[in-house]
Every structure is written in C-alpha cells, then in structure tokens.
C-alpha cells in the first residue's frame, strides 16, 4: 500500500487545482493572482490550474475582506469543495481585514468564516509570494486524508437528496 | 476467437489510456510552448487523474454515477471492438451510447451550467455523427466492406482516394478532442462562460473516470484516422502526427465559436467535401 500512498501524495503535490474567490477585494490582489498564470510566472509548469469550479478544486484562494453579505457565499463555495482541500488567504485584507477591519459591515479576515491554512500578506501580495503560499498549502494538503468512506454509497445518495430538498434554506440571495 | 485476437484486445485496453494520457500531456506541453510558456510535465494528466481518484466522492444522485460507468464501459468496448477488427458501424453505435450516457449524467443534476453544457454536447454530437457515418460509407465505397480486417487488407492507402473525407474526419476529431473552435460544451482550459460545462457536476473519482474514458475515445478516433494509411507503419505515424499537430495549431489560433456557427459550418463544409470526394471516386471509375 505504501507505493500507492506515495503515488497519491506525489500526484496531489503535482496537480493542485485552484479556485479563486474575490471576497470584496480592491482587485489589486486579484490582478496579482491572475499574473501568476501569465507566461512570466507560468504556474502551469507546477501543474497548477485556475479551475473555475469548486467541485473540481483542491485549493481555495480568497482575496479581500469578508463582510456580512458575502460570508454566506464564501462558506457555500468552501462546502462544495470535496476533501482534501486547503484555503489560502491573500493580501492584507484576506488575512486580517486590512484597513477595512473596523468598518461597520466587515467581519474581518477569511478565517472568521472558514479555516485558513496559509496566510499570504502584502498589499497587494506579490505573485512570487502567492506561488510560495500555494507550495506551503500543498505540504499541508499532502498528508490530509479524505473523510473515511465508512458510509455506503446509498447513505451518500440519501444525503444528496436531502441536500437538494433543503436547497432553499441555503440560498445566498433573495 | 483466436488467441491472437484476445491478446490484441487486452493490449489495446491496457495501452489505450496510457497512450491517450501521454498524448494529452504532450498536447499541453506543445500548447504552452506555442504560448511562450514552459508548460507542465508530460505526465501531468496522469497526476491529475490519480489525484482525482484519491479525492472524496461527492454524490449528486444515482444516475450520474451510473452514467459515468456506462460511458467508461462503452469507451473501453469501442477500443476492444477495434482491436477485434470488428464492424465500423458497430463501433460507431457503441460510441454513441457512451456519449449519450455522458450527457444524460450531466442532465441528471439540476445545475444550470451542467444542463447548458449537456445541451451543447448534444448539438456537438448532432454535428459530428452524420459526418462520421459519411466517412464510414466512403470507406465502404472504396474497400467494399465495413469490417476493419477487410479494410486493412486493401492494398493501397485509402487516404489517396479519400483525402477530402479525411478532412471531414478531422472535424469530428476536433469536436471529440474538445478543441477550439468547437470547445463549446466543455473546455480543458478554465474560465469560460459555462464554468466547466458538461463536466461541472462530475467531481473527484467520477471526473477521473470521465477523463480516462475520454482518453479511450481519443485513441479510438485516432485509430480510425490511422485506417486511412494502413499499408505502411511510417505513413500511418506521419499522417497521425501531422493531423494531431494541425489540431493543436488550430486550437491555439482559433477562438471559441457559437453552436449555430459550428452546426452550419461543419455540416456545409463537411457534406460538400464528402460529396466532391464521392463524385471524384465515381469519375475515376469511368
């Protein structure tokens, strides 16, 4: 089993798929995150892909402060990601709330809503720092086990049906 | 069934996903090179699939899981039928069943992205399937048979008689590879208006199964392409290499089109090219 475990850990290290969520950032950090994908930094050489779908993603990259309106959306995206997963908070606002932390509508950093694994400071964070943050997150992600599959598939299906039936309680808007 | 056939089938089933994955890796590397980037390692698709297999399963409903497995079985069966040198039409029908189940799985989830992706996937199937049938009929006109063993027994490269039909086949190849300008239902690259289109609701191990089935599909279409120069191994390799390189170049220089453009363009060009090729065949006989 050791061989398969090593293979899985190696694959996890080599293929992190990111989803980027802008939680009310000023776009400074967002532009730096997107800059990582350009030929200058080319994160695809590490297998990093910016995937637009939480169901396929391994790492949630969040920039900007969390406020009362988007906290629910952030939690929703986090819940949709299958285990194992990691969260990176980018920039001064994402890590702590930044200059907006005292504002009446702001909850604070990303860690007020979901557990954060890596904090990347900076205003805005440099692309090198963001890539470094992803590498740090991968070290944590590697050893993480997916939830034990003791439940049979039928139980999963039942849960899926209940989840669908309760969909209106989870609605973000309206 | 002879021992030789069984060995061929087993070899094809084992080697096809490896070849498909390597091809996808080379494809990504070349694309990165065209864009002035370094690109991921050649083995990247395998890392992706192994990682996905190790992820937690997120079940949407029963149908989705069922459909994923049927798609995989149909894709494997197609490659096995090809290795058995069976009937081209039979392979075509089995391939269609797999594709339809993939769409049905996407339709089973209520997500609008996956629904819209599924609709577009159906339109893509509507576009390439008649063309594939026309190509098979063209092969029949030349060799007198739909059976692969009899096509292989034909003593000249079919490509010389059916060059335009080969072009038509590459349209189907582009659509099956999900490459630009025909990547309207799901793109390998992120950031499109549909999230991941028909793949949106498949996640974790089920996405990995879809990816493996996709590799089988690609290998099958390339195998059908290889029938066009079956007389010499070197000719076959050159034909496939040129075809795939052209696919990558077209993928990089064209934008994504709308489904209306795809349907009208591919049918108009494809059907007229086939018509000319058939006319040429008849003119040659007189």
Helicity of chain A, in percent? 25-40%
The major β-sheet of chain B equals: none
Under CATH at level 1, the class of chain A stands as Alpha Beta
Strand content of chain A: 5-15%
The tally of helices of chain A reads: 6
| Strand elements of chain A, count | 7
Topology overview:
The complex is a heterodimer of chains A (174) and B (286).
Chain A: H1 2-14, E1 17-22, H2 28-35, E2 49-50, E3 59-63, E4 66-67, H3 71-80, E5 86-90, H4 91-96, E6 106-108, E7 118-120, H5 127-143, H6 153-165
Parallel strand pairs in A: 1-2, 1-3, 3-5, 5-7
Antiparallel strand pairs in A: 4-6
Helix pairs in contact in A: 1-5
Chain B: H1 3-34, H2 44-53, H3 62-83, H4 88-107, H5 112-143, H6 148-152, H7 163-176, H8 205-226, H9 233-253, H10 259-285
Helix pairs in contact in B: 1-3, 1-8, 2-8, 3-4, 3-8, 4-5, 5-7, 5-10, 7-8, 7-10
Give a description of the structure.
The complex is a heterodimer of chains A (174) and B (286). A five-stranded parallel β-sheet of chain A has the order 2-1-3-5-7. Chain A has one domain: Rossmann fold (3-Layer(aba) Sandwich). In chain A, strand 1, helix 2 and strand 2 (49-50) form a beta-alpha-beta unit. Chain A has 174 residues and is an alpha/beta fold. The model of chain A has no long low-confidence stretch (mean pLDDT 85). Chain A is built from six helices and seven strands. The longest helix of chain A has 17 residues, at 127-143. Chain A is globular, with a radius of gyration of 17 Å. Chain A is 39% helix and 15% strand. Chain B has 286 residues and is mainly alpha-helical. Chain B is 72% helix and 0% strand. Chain B contains ten helices and no strands. In chain B, helix 3 runs parallel beside helix 8, helix 4 (88-107) runs antiparallel to helix 5 and helix 5 (112-143) runs parallel beside helix 10. In chain B, 47% of the residues are buried. Classes of the chains: A alpha/beta (174), B mainly alpha (286). The A-B interface holds A 7-8, 10-12, 14-15, 17, 39, 42, 44-47, 49-53, 55-56, 58, 80, 82-84, 146-147, 149, 153, 156-157, 159-161, 164 and B 28, 32, 35-41, 44, 46-48, 50-51, 53-62, 65, 110, 190-192, 195-196, 199-204, 207.
């Amino acid at each position: 089993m050791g061989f398969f475990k090593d293979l899985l850990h190696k694959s996890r290290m080599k293929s992190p798929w990111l989803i980027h969520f802008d939680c009310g950032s000023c776009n400074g950090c967002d532009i730096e995150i997107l800059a990582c994908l350009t030929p200058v930094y080319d994160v695809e050489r590490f297998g990093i892909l910016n995937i637009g779908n939480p169901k396929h993603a391994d790492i949630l990259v969040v920039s900007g402060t969390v406020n009362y309106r988007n906290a629910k959306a952030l939690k929703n995206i986090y819940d949709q990601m299958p285990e194992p997963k990691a969260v990176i908070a980018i920039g001064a606002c994402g890590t702590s709330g930044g200059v907006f932390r005292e504002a009446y509508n702001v909850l604070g950093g990303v860690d007020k809503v979901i557990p954060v694994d890596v904090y990347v400071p900076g205003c805005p964070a440099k692309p090198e720092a963001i890539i470094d943050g992803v590498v740090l997150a991968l070290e944590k992600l590697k050893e993480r086990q997916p939830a034990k599959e003791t439940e049979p598939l039928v139980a999963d299906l039942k849960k899926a049906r209940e989840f669908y039936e309760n969909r209106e309680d989870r609605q973000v808007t309206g | 069934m002879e021992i030789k056939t069984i060995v061929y089938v087993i070899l094809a089933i084992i080697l096809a996903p490896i070849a498909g994955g390597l091809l996808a890796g080379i494809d990504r590397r070349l694309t990165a090179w065209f864009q002035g980037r370094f690109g991921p390692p050649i083995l990247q698709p395998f890392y992706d699939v192994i990682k996905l297999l190790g992820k937690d399963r997120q079940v949407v409903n029963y149908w989705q899981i069922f459909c994923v497995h049927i798609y995989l079985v149909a894709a494997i069966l197609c490659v096995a039928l090809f290795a058995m040198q069976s009937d081209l039409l039979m392979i075509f029908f089995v391939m269609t069943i797999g594709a339809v189940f993939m769409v049905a799985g996407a339709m089973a989830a209520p997500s609008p992205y996956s629904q819209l992706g599924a609709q577009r996937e159906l339109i893509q199937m509507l576009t390439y399937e008649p063309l594939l049938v026309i190509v098979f009929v063209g092969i029949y006109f030349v060799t007198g048979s739909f059976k692969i063993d009899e096509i292989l027994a034909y003593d000249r490269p079919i490509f010389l008689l059916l060059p335009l039909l080969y072009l038509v086949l590459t349209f189907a190849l582009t659509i099956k590879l999900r490459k630009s300008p025909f990547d309207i239902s799901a793109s390998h690259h992120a950031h499109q208006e549909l999230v991941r289109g028909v793949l949106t609701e498949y996640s974790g191990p089920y996405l990995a199964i879809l990816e493996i089935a996709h590799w089988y599909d690609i290998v099958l279409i390339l195998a059908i392409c290889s029938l066009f120069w079956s007389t010499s191994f070197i000719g076959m390799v050159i034909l496939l290499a040129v075809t795939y390189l052209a696919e990558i170049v077209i993928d990089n220089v064209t934008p994504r089109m709308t489904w209306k453009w795809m349907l009208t363009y591919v049918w108009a060009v494809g059907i007229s090219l086939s018509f000319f090729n058939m006319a040429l065949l008849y003119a040659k006989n007189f």
